[in-house]
Design goal:
It is a single chain. This protein is an alpha+beta fold and 268 residues long. It has 2 domains: 2-78, Orthogonal Bundle (Arc Repressor Mutant, subunit A); 106-258, Endonuclease, Chain A (2-Layer Sandwich). It has helices at 2-10, 15-27, 32-39, 43-55, 74-95, 112-125, 136-151, 215-246, 251-258; strands at 30-31, 59-61, 68-71, 106-110, 129-133, 155-158, 185-191, 195-202, 205-212. The strands form 2 sheets. Strands 4-9-8-7-5-6 form a 6-stranded mixed β-sheet, with helices on both faces. A 3-stranded antiparallel β-sheet has the order 1-3-2. A hairpin with a 6-residue loop joins strand 2 and strand 3 (68-71). Helix 1 packs across helix 2, helix 3 (32-39) packs across helix 4 and helix 6 (112-125) runs parallel beside helix 7. The longest helix has 32 residues, at 215-246. It is rod-shaped and about 105 Å long. Keywords: Coiled coil.
């Protein structure tokens, strides 16, 4: 009984309306006086509620004196409620004011604790894929979170010498130097291709990171990651030929683009 009254109230009926409908369903039909006597409430409240329910179409009033009321069959009542709720939902969907969606924001985080707390929360919410480019020091702090993500079916992709998805031996891909004038180690992560973090940590610097869902930034990080893995695959297939032409780890080739510029006197 209590459960039935609870669900009727959940559908928008008042407590008095719910009790009257249940009582009429139990009795088949009854006058206002009989309902009031059965429920132990005032006749004025019962009569007002009966008239309201009849106007809304949930009760039928028979001819005669005194007038007797009966409630709709359960299937009729639920069909009527379902139709009314569907109409209301459709109206709300089509008529609710809308505003322009907010543009993805960029926000900064400082401090080791805040950066890792933010990162761990996002890793726990990952559903499909995590793309990660970090160093051994960061991997050790995130190992458990990443393992949990992989255990629940999230795809993990790494920028590391052992290929993708190797939690056991996370090694950095040899690209730009890990450190640059004491700035620290650069790291980046992309979660489900819609959230990313790009930051720097270590070497005596304050841990800092930029977090955003902007598609341009996530696209740039994903493209950079893909290019690194393509180069890695090429090195595996053509290692000796590439090393003979460009030097180990493409040092001569990368020096054209990553070496610091010099002034006219040859100094940096």
């Amino acid at each position: 009984m209590d459960q039935l009254l609870h669900h009727l109230r959940h559908l928008g009926f008042t407590e008095m309306e719910s009790k009257i409908m249940v009582e009429l369903a139990r009795q088949g039909s009854a006058s206002g006086y009989e309902v009031a006597k059965r429920l132990g409430v005032s006749r004025s409240n019962v009569y007002a509620t009966l008239q309201r329910l009849e106007q809304r179409g949930f009760l039928r009033c028979g001819a005669g004196e005194p007038a007797k009321y009966s409630v709709l069959k359960p299937e009729e009542m639920t069909r009527m409620i379902s139709g009314q709720m569907r109409d209301s939902l459709n109206y709300v969907q089509s008529s609710m004011p809308q505003h322009e969606p907010e543009k993805p924001a960029f926000y900064n985080i400082e401090g080791d604790k805040k950066v890792f707390e933010t990162l761990k929360r996002q890793l726990a919410e990952a559903k499909h894929e995590i793309v990660i480019d970090v160093w051994r020091e960061e991997i050790e702090s995130l190992h458990e979170d990443l393992q949990q993500a992989e255990d629940r079916g999230v795809r993990l992709l790494w920028s590391c010498e052992e290929g993708e998805g190797m939690l056991e031996q996370p090694l950095p891909w040899p690209g730009m130097p890990a450190y640059a004038d004491g700035e620290g180690r650069k790291f980046s992560l992309v979660v489900d291709r819609c959230w990313c973090m790009l930051g720097m940590r270590g070497q005596g610097s304050v841990t800092q990171a930029v977090v955003t869902e902007h598609p341009v930034m996530t696209g740039l990080l994903l493209n950079h990651f893909a290019q690194d893995l393509v180069l890695f695959e090429l090195e595996q297939d053509m290692g000796e030929a590439l090393e003979a032409r460009y030097g180990r780890r493409y040092e001569r080739l990368s020096a054209r683009y990553w070496s610091k510029p010099t002034d006219g006197n040859g100094s940096t």
